[in-house]
Give the backbone structure.
Amino acid sequence: MSYARVLCVGLVGVTGHLVEVEADLAPGLPAVAISGLPDTALHEARDRVRAAIVNSGQKWPNRRITLNLLPATLPKFGSAFDLAIAAALLGSSGELPLLALDGVVVLGELGLDGTVRPVRGVLPMVAAAAGAGVRRVIVPVPNAAEAAVIPGVRVRAVDTLHRLVAFVRDGSPLVDPPGPVPASAPTGGPDLADVAGQGYARRALEVAAAGGHHVALLGPPGTGKTMLAERLPSILPALDDEAALEVTALHSIAGLLPPGGRLLRRPPFQAPHHTATVPALVGGGTGLARPGAVSLAHRGVLFLDEAPEFSKTALESLRQPLEHGRVHLARARGATEYPARTQVVLAANPCPCARPAGDTACECSPLARRRYLGRLSGPLLDRIDVQVTVLPVRAAELMGSGETAEPSAVVAARVAAARAAAAERWAAVGHRLNAELPGPALRRPPFRLPAADTAELRGRLDNGSLSARGFDRIIRLAWSIADLDGRGRPNREDVREAIGFRTGEGV
């Protein structure tokens, strides 16, 4: 037999595609040709696979070898095809009867000694295989627990090419994946009870968590901006199955999954340094782009501390993800799309000198202050729902007066109840969070608020102090406030409080 075929999976972004690895042997001078839009790592697979086959005690076919990866129009990236290529080559040379691999997806990178090494992105690969009707997969041993997360798929693992050959030839057993690791309750994380004072900022953070709104925290250093931002994930609900699968798949592609092979249930938290580049924030790299911090924070929090210190280009690159919840990256070899439904938290000092005492000791001129905060452009801030000025903490609040601030668990319970109410209300229009709802749905019956309750808001829109986007975002904030307080619809006071959060006038 001079032809064989083995199934594999290729990734484009977070989307997996079933790939058929074909091997054909023909008379002629020994050579290996690979077709099907392979990248550099795949071109180098010919040398890795040859050494692995020989060092595993198998015979390398000294004929003209053609490897084709179908569909040929789909770009192929990475080393996850190595094991499938080796199996197809041995099958085409007659060394292996491939009946045992019929309908089986084979994933893995090969070392020169024949060891099977782990690869990135196994979770979305196995999910794509399951979506295509495949019910059996073979993966590297370190990826077995991760692959076993996908229901309805029988996962087997290999540590060497020799073990795979023995399985195909005579049915020798493969390695079973380990059992699921039970989820444990998180302990020792940041808690809102650690924040002294700042009642207004805490309320703003709670409203933002309830509706999934973006936040900007402005104020002098030492007032608790970073502490508040780091504690936002602690009041967010745990991820449901769908969201956990999305988040875990993104971290699998980035190679950031912790050991244990379970779904990530805690909302992720990303805090890139202010020297981060545009590719680091939104995604990039050679070939098709890798996910950036905004996608790794999907369904969680992206915290930009010292936001004016980020490059203007990097900050402006966030405008489209903040608006649409997705990142679309076009490169020469194709386009990639990653989810980016995250809550962005910006923290900024009021001026370059950032004196702890604030205005009383500031040495910056009014022009320097305007230029510094001007690095946060109007279009970017227009996409930030909650904009809060965090004032210095008083001594009595810092030292405590016998009262303990509410812990994250208590606040998280109210946030979970508010989100449940919003999810039930918006289920008919296909949304779960107030921040995700399209503006037209809020301005039409049955959800349009009475004219008396929105009179001040409409006045600000008419005099030009508020954009149409800002109008919609204030209405969304009002719904989140009403949900937190247990009301079925926002009233005038809710709208007024939302205006204060949006404009920074509510301190």
